[in-house]
Design goal:
- The chain has a single domain, classed as Rossmann fold.
- Helices cover 31% and strands 28% of the residues.
- The strands form two sheets. Strands 4-7-6-5-8-9-11-10 form an eight-stranded mixed β-sheet, with helices on both faces.
- Helix 5 links the parallel strand 8 and strand 9.
């Protein structure tokens, strides 16, 4: 079953001949060799290559594959098992702003009593290409969070990790009994890195509750906080490269971090669950 709709006419988008998806108005989209679709119209792009570039995607994959964020993964899995209740065992999960696909693949597969089909999207073609090449049981496509080519009420669970949220679109695609899980930085996330860059540390703030509560019921908030210990310059650099700090910091201040061969860093996440 396809949950996709055509980004041009909103008609159902289904597989046709080999490696092609077509809507009722004959708009067609070819699968890339990695198995993903590009459903981002040119008029929805704000740059030639929007979203994370290849270097950022590679750095994030290298860091995440080291397992530093496994406590976050385990917390998400536990919340799905203990706080969510689905009417059927087969569910459609949608990773909104999926990046290279790590979080949904690790957190939403092989959950007790559930058979999860994962769909994911990101505006970065490099991220989607990376995800589709590695997690071949899932389906990925390039699109904007603000104009999702996804059918109304077709998704049982939305996962959004460190990505923009578009509450109206989330509400439109979520089923009547569905849930949305939003992970955002809590106040002290990566505090030690910020302290090495800026004169004064400013705790992270978020308006997730304010944004989402206009369309959803807030059901639960869980904080996941832990420390990670890095013991090589390569590990430190892979973490910094996947953050905005690397791209927005003057080189001389960045060297305060990139020359370090050991670093202990606070990880601080808020995990919010919303329902219809």
């Amino acid at each position: 079953m396809s949950i996709l709709i055509c980004p041009y006419c909103q008609g159902s988008l289904v597989p046709s001949e080999e490696r092609t998806y077509v809507c009722e108005n004959k708009h067609s989209f070819d699968l890339a060799k990695q198995g993903y679709l590009n459903l981002l119209p040119v008029n929805q792009k704000k740059s030639k290559d929007p979203g994370d570039n290849q270097m950022m995607v590679t750095a994030r994959r290298e860091f995440l594959e080291l397992g530093f964020y496994d406590p976050l993964i385990e917390c998400i899995k536990s919340l799905v098992e203990t706080k969510l209740s689905f009417s059927a065992s087969n569910i459609i999960a949608f990773d909104a702003g999926c990046g290279e696909g790590y979080y949904s693949q690790k957190a939403l597969n092989e959950l007790p009593g559930l058979n999860t089909k994962i769909w994911g999207t990101d505006i970065s073609k490099y991220a989607v290409k990376n995800a589709a090449g590695k997690y071949k049981n899932n389906f990925y496509f390039v699109s904007s969070i603000y104009n999702l080519p996804v059918a109304k009420a077709s998704v049982d669970l939305i996962l959004s990790v460190f990505s923009p949220v578009m509450e109206e679109e989330f509400k439109r695609i979520l089923s009547a009994q569905g849930y949305a899980i939003v992970v955002s930085p809590a106040p002290n996330h990566l505090r030690e890195i910020a302290e090495l860059i800026y004169e004064n540390f400013r705790p992270h703030t978020t308006n997730i509750l304010e944004k989402m509560s206009a369309s959803f019921r807030h059901l639960h908030r869980e904080n996941s906080s832990f420390r990670i210990e890095m013991h090589s310059a390569e590990e430190v650099l892979s973490l910094v490269k996947m953050t905005p700090y690397y791209w927005s910091t003057a080189e001389e201040r960045l060297e305060n971090i990139t020359k370090k061969t050991e670093l202990s860093v606070s990880c601080d996440f808020n995990i919010d669950i919303f329902g219809q």
